[in-house]
Write a structure and sequence with these properties.
With 611 residues, the protein is mainly β. A hairpin with a 4-residue loop joins β39 and β40. It has eight helices and 44 strands. The chain is globular, with a radius of gyration of 26 Å. It has a domain of 232 residues: Metallo-dependent phosphatases (Purple Acid Phosphatase, chain A, domain 2, 4-Layer Sandwich), CATH 3.60.21.10. The chain is 13% helix and 37% strand.
Length: 611
């Protein structure tokens, strides 16, 4: 009798395991837009369709190479050929150089995050940037808010699989916002892409798997992973189109999650704030989505937009919200204030003129694509570029277009410069442009000779002095051009200055932020001056394209890890530093040396006061 009971228990257990068993395809880093991306993905889709035992497909980002509308549309067309349910999130290649600020991805695929239940498991996937500007990976603020809502509705014992493009480690600047949350639930494992290689990982005790890229790379054919979910374990095995499933290379035990980790749990340190205690936050506002721009301000209000299309105005006195305005797309355009009008662009394809005091729409201009560029007001005219390959001059009071230049290659995402009757700006189409301020005619354009769009002078705001325009592209070279004809006067690559530059108040010096610890200075002149001086400020590895702003005999800038710095350029000494959060600090708005307004990628808007 006892043996019969044991047999029944084992049989029931076996049947339960069988009932829970299922398989899914784990595809990542397809990079449609590269030489073999399209063909490799088509082969994978056809191969998946031949397998009747796969229940669904998960695609974990870097679906495209540059996030263009054409690439995203092609990827959607290919994936739509799948004959079983499929789910997709973006990666950094889909958002970092996106001409729409991620709007096209959401329009094509419906969302940039997802959750669904299957055989008792809950699958949860978040988007991850960076968005538009170069920075670390980042789970968007709105995705974290969304994740809280999903987890709140998840039973404590329900098994969860967490999905992200990046590993949930410090390759994301806010990794802990994910790990701290999922470890409170019955997390089984996480999957990710980004690294293009199969790898067993562990995120603070949460077992994880990085998947290989679908690209063939040096092989003759691409591939992906098939995940077999059994009652006791999840097995990962490579599947190459047309070939048999390879033996499992990774096994993760399934069961009740117990939070433990053999590695040290690390969190960002704010110790630097104790060193410079003279810096305080007068107020802090945490937006509901990413803020990847510079807030504008007058004597009463602070205005900014966020990545879910909201424009908000706060009291500059206490940070309380005064009004809001909703656009139809993500906002990466730093607003400009002229009198009582606020001007900005939106991912919905419109340029807006809003009433500063109420937020009500005064006028708007429809363009043919997202408008990510930052406006510049000069007198009664506002100048702004968009992703429809147009740069416009607009009457700020009426919203009437004065002129347009339609010969832009790539998307415009930066801020223009007006100097000696000329408008200067860069784009993600390789070139720096010079237009006639009065009629928009092209005077000249320049590129650094690289065919790679990733080296475009897109994010650096140019500066100019004595007939010379200065800028730095991602090629890590500081360039000086003749403003009249675009001829190269000099190019200096000693310090690997990457996009982040600024000019002293008297125009005598150019400042550059290097990619490791140092700020450097150069004299403004027509021949290569070499580096005048170096200042080691200890900010570590750095790649954020935030400009250096000179005001009241000091220079201010932000970094990738949420720290704002001020230094004295005359004695080459750090004045203060203050950590706001752990994400990218945008170009700061320096009211004066005692008051600095700023925003971080995680949506933190704050006013720092310095004693």
């Amino acid at each position: 009798m006892k043996s019969i009971i044991v047999f029944i228990v084992l049989l029931v257990s076996f049947l339960n395991v069988d009932a829970q068993a299922f398989k899914y395809a784990f595809v990542t880093d397809t990079h449609v837009g590269t030489e073999t991306g399209e063909e490799d993905l088509r082969r994978t889709v056809n191969d998946i369709n031949l397998q009747n035992d796969l229940d669904f497909v998960i695609v974990t980002g870097d679906v495209t190479e540059m996030g263009t509308k054409a690439e995203i549309k092609l990827a959607k067309e290919i994936l739509s050929g799948l004959k079983k349910p499929w789910y997709v999130i973006p990666g950094n290649h889909d958002t970092g150089w996106s001409e729409s600020g991620g709007v096209d991805f959401i329009r094509e695929f419906g969302d940039d995050k997802f959750t669904f239940d299957h055989n008792g498991f809950r699958f949860i996937a978040c988007a991850s940037g960076p968005y538009v500007r170069m920075s670390d990976g980042h789970i968007p603020r709105d995705a974290v808010v969304w994740l809280d809502g999903v987890l709140k509705k998840t039973p404590a014992d329900m098994p969860i699989v967490f999905i992200n493009h990046y590993p949930i480690d410090n390759s994301l600047d806010n990794w802990y916002e994910a790990t701290d949350r999922i470890k409170k639930y019955n997390i089984q494992y996480a999957i990710c892409g980004h690294g293009h290689a199969n790898q067993a990982m562990d995120f603070e005790g949460v077992p994880a798997t990085m998947g290989r890229s679908n690209l063939r790379a040096k092989d003759s054919i691409g591939g992906y992973n098939v995940v077999t979910m059994r009652g006791d374990s999840a097995l990962f095995a490579v599947k190459k189109p047309g070939s048999l499933l390879e033996p499992s290379w990774r096994s993760i035990p399934l069961g009740t999650f117990v939070a433990n980790s053999s590695s040290k749990i690390v969190r960002p340190s704010y110790e630097i704030n104790n060193t410079y205690s003279q810096v305080k936050s007068a107020w802090t506002y945490h937006a509901s989505a990413n803020v990847v721009l510079t807030p504008a301000a007058d004597k009463k209000l602070v205005v900014f937009g966020n990545s879910i299309g909201e424009v908000e105005a706060l009291s500059i006195k206490d940070g309380s919200k005064k009004w809001g305005f909703k656009t139809g797309g993500a906002i990466y355009s730093s607003p400009a204030i002229a009198g009582k009008i606020v001007v900005l662009g939106s991912g919905d394809g419109f340029i807006y003129g809003l009433d500063l005091n109420s937020g009500k729409e005064i006028w708007k201009i429809k363009t043919n694509a997202s408008v990510l560029g930052t406006p510049l007001v000069d007198g009664k005219v506002v100048y702004i570029g968009g992703s429809d390959h147009n740069f416009r001059a607009i009457d700020i009071k009426t919203g009437k277009q004065i002129w347009t230049f339609d010969g832009i290659e790539g998307a415009i995402v930066g801020k223009p410069l007006i100097y000696q009757g000329k408008v200067f700006f860069g784009s993600w189409g390789r070139h720096l442009y010079a237009l006639d301020e009065n009629n928009g005619k092209l005077l000249w354009k320049w590129n650094n000779g690289s065919a790679n769009r990733m080296f475009s002078p897109a994010m650096c705001t140019p500066v100019a002095k004595d007939g010379v325009v200065y800028f730095a592209a991602p090629d890590r070279v500081l360039t000086a051009l003749d403003v009249n004809n675009g001829s190269v006067l000099w190019r200096n690559k000693e310090a690997t200055v990457r996009e982040s530059i600024g000019m002293s108040e008297d125009g005598a010096l150019i400042f550059g932020k290097t990619m490791n610890d140092e700020v450097v200075a150069y004299r403004t002149q027509t021949t290569d001056p070499g580096i005048l001086w170096r200042l080691n400020m200890g900010f570590g590895y750095e790649h954020t394209p935030s400009m250096l702003i000179a005001k009241d005999k000091q220079v201010f800038f932000g970094t990738r890890n949420g720290v704002v710095y001020a230094f004295d350029p005359y004695i080459q000494k750090t004045v203060w530093a203050h950590k706001v959060d752990n994400s990218m600090v945008n170009t700061v708005n320096v009211i004066n040396k005692k008051s600095v307004l700023l925003a971080t990628m995680d949506g933190v808007v704050t006013l720092l006061t310095i004693k």
